[in-house]
């Protein structure tokens, strides 16, 4: 019979040895508990850009820049934005750019915070689709909306413009009321060149 100390517990004649956990294990466990509130505050308190989802979006946008060679340099005009706002794979890239740079002012879903609501039918500085890219490039409101021309790739400007355009009509509620004026609906996308149409079909089938 072992001389190891026992706990004194007895279950139907079965005794329990007193084998405490190693000290290092206990302190490691206590340390994880002490660390957990700081971890929660940093990653799960809603601060923009810290969640795993937000970091994934930033990484996705960075990886997508490597794919820009396949579409070349996009022009920030109405026709190009109208075309890309109907390409789901590229709108997701614009969404990633938006999540990485715009949610602190315009809200996570474009519902508006410091900046105006992007999901309603009212627009302050926009008349055409191309104006979205112009505002992003040059800024607006005497600096209230900063210029992003020197901080984003030209293709990112076009794709985030396409994403912003796609938010119109969702009418999400935000802290700011309607601002600006009603404008004409966005134009229909131009016909796809045959080779682009074939490529889009292949991407949807894959």
Automatic annotation (TrEMBL):
Keywords annotated in UniProt: Electron transport, Heme, Iron, Membrane, Metal-binding, Transmembrane, Transmembrane helix, Transport
Specify residue ranges for compositional bias: Acidic residues: 191-206
Q: Which residues form the Cytochrome c domain?
A: 89-168
- Tell me the GO molecular function terms: electron transfer activity; heme binding; iron ion binding
* Xref: InterPro entries: CcoP_N, CcoP_N_sf, Cyt_c-like_dom, Cyt_c-like_dom_sf, Cyt_C_IC, Cytochrome_c_Oxidase_Subunit
Check the record and name the Gene3D superfamilies matching this protein: 6.10.280.130, Cytochrome c-like domain (1.10.760.10)
Work out whether the entry's keyword set contains Electron transport. yes
Entry's transmembrane regions:
24-42
The UniProt record lists the keyword Iron: yes
Show the segment(s) annotated as Disordered: 170-206
Q: What is this protein called?
A: Cbb3-type cytochrome c oxidase subunit CcoP1
Species this chain originates from: Roseimaritima ulvae
């Amino acid at each position: 019979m072992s001389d190891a100390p026992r706990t004194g517990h007895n279950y139907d004649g079965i005794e329990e040895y007193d084998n405490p956990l190693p000290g290092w294990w206990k302190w490691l466990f206590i340390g994880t508990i002490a660390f957990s509130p700081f971890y929660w505050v940093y990653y799960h308190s809603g601060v923009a850009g810290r969640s795993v989802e937000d970091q994934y979006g930033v990484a996705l946008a960075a990886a997508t820049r490597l794919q820009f060679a396949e579409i070349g340099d996009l022009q920030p005009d109405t026709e190009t934005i109208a075309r890309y706002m109907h390409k789901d794979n590229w709108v997701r890239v614009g969404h990633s750019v938006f999540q990485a740079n715009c949610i602190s002012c315009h809200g996570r879903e474009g519902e508006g915070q410091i900046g105006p609501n992007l999901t309603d039918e009212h627009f302050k500085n926009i008349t055409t689709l191309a104006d979205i890219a112009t505002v992003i490039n040059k800024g607006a409101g005497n600096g209230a909306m900063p210029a992003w021309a020197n901080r984003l790739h030209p293709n990112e400007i076009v794709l985030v413009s396409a994403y912003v355009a796609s938010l119109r009509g969702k009418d999400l509620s935000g802290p700011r009321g309607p601002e600006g004026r009603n404008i004409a609906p966005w134009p229909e996308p131009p016909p796809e060149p045959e080779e682009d149409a074939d490529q889009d079909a292949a991407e949807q089938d894959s």
